Amino acid sequence: MYSAPFPLAATVKALRSEQIGLETYINDICARIEATEPYIEALLPEENRRGRLLNEAVALQKRFPDPARRPALYGALLGVKDLFHIDGFATHAGSKLPPEVFHGPEASCIRKLREAGALILGLTVAAEFAYFEPGTTRNPHNPEHTPGGSSSGSAAAVVAGYCQLALGTQTSGSIVRPAAFCGVIGFKATYGRIATDGLIFCAPTLDTLGYFTQDLAGLQLVAPLLCQGWQPVASLPTKPVLGIPEGPYLALASSEALAVFERQVAVLEKAGYTLRRVPIFQDIDAIHHRHMRLVCAEMARTHADWFGQYELLYRPRTTQAIHEGLAISYPEFDLYRASPGALRTEIETLMESAGIDLWICPSAVGPAPASIATTGDAAMNVPWTHAGLPTISLPVGSAANGLPLGLQCIGRFQCDEYLLAWAPGLAEALGMV
């Protein structure tokens, strides 16, 4: 087991006040990476990472000499999924394509975090083009198991104690599932709430940004920096009404995951939460079909130029998806692009009529599979991602083999503020904090 406690909020508070020395902290983390990374492989290799970070630390100290004026993320180490453009780094998108084809301006989300005092730890390993061909990363809780994907390196780097914050993306389940498998907090914002400039897309109609932390306080610290139009919640009902999505969708989870989930439900009821079991997603197979057809169609169009030139460098599952997408006509493509909005309306109409504030369900069908040749099953994430709704995975519960499980909490479209405001109460009731 290669996990280590590394909460964002407490660490930056100590760095800002100089309770922790910035250079000592960087040296300690780099030593941990050198000792652990051969077993985890969460990061893209970098020569003299330690030297670069120490130089950047000196520059940060000179920029903010007064502890009282240091920004919110002063000295925080940031892992960035290998899909973003970052000044000074070569992005590969988890692929074998020459990195110069991906060159572009630095993503604004990274620029905002830098301005808030974060230091770039490095690029984190990702599945090829954020699809299903896994990278080399292993699960820090058991290296024989997958960390999930496609944001595999970001989740693993946070739980391994390399960084307190890591960026990820989700097209199907690429934040929530790795968060659950690795036992960290994963937040996927409302679709479009975090700017996607500087991102190498998988499927632009679905691709959503988010991030990983070990602590909810850290999660809440970052959201106003990244989410456009963030408004603090002025008045919040103490406990949201929780919906349980009954039917064929929930039945996709394993018996073990469902048993743990039902225990969580019982704990929440005892803590005073109102829970309502509501039938939904009776057509879950059709939702999955539309989702994957949309992914393939958009991958084909996003990769048209690259694939035409470098097809032989693409891995088999990505190649298959692009070929499938090339066969989808534009009239059919238009039907698939209309699907997310229609599903979102269906879900939110049901939430309104049933008086539901948040949905809860397992974050994944079960614990991390015993293989690094797969990223796991995204079935529990697809409908919520398809609809563009904000989602958090809380690391609560564990499987019989000791690997983590997660509770997935889903809010209303553009109501990320409420989802994050309610999360601490849920976590406390479930014994997470």
Walk me through the structure.
The chain is α/β, with parallel strands linked by helices. Among the domains are: 219 residues, Amidase signature (AS) domain (Amidase signature (AS) enzymes, Alpha-Beta Complex), CATH 3.90.1300.10; 49 residues. Helix content is 40%, strand content 12%. The chain has 14 helices and 10 strands. The chain has a 10-stranded mixed β-sheet with strand order 2-1-3-5-4-9-10-8-6-7, with helices on both faces. Helix 7 packs antiparallel against helix 14 and helix 9 crosses helix 12. The radius of gyration is 21 Å and the shape is globular. The protein starts with 7 loop residues before the first helix and ends with a helix. The model has no long low-confidence stretch (mean pLDDT 97).
Would you spell out the secondary-structure blueprint of this structure?
Elements: H1 8-16, H2 22-40, H3 49-63, E1 77-81, H4 108-115, E2 119-124, H5 152-159, E3 165-170, H6 176-182, E4 185-188, E5 208-213, H7 216-226, E6 242-246, H8 255-270, E7 275-279, H9 284-302, H10 304-310, H11 316-326, H12 330-354, E8 358-362, H13 382-386, E9 391-394, E10 407-410, H14 416-429
Parallel strand pairs: 1-2, 1-3, 6-7, 6-8
Antiparallel strand pairs: 3-5, 4-5, 4-9, 8-10, 9-10
Helix pairs in contact: 2-3, 7-14, 9-11, 9-12
Low-confidence stretches: none
CATH domain class of the domain at 8-226: Alpha Beta
Amino-to-carboxy terminus distance: 21 Å
Number of helices: 14
Looking at the structure, the CATH topology of the domain at 8-226 is Amidase signature (AS) enzymes
CATH superfamily annotation of the domain at 8-226: Amidase signature (AS) domain
Secondary-structure element sequence? HHHEHEHEHEEHEHEHHHHEHEEH
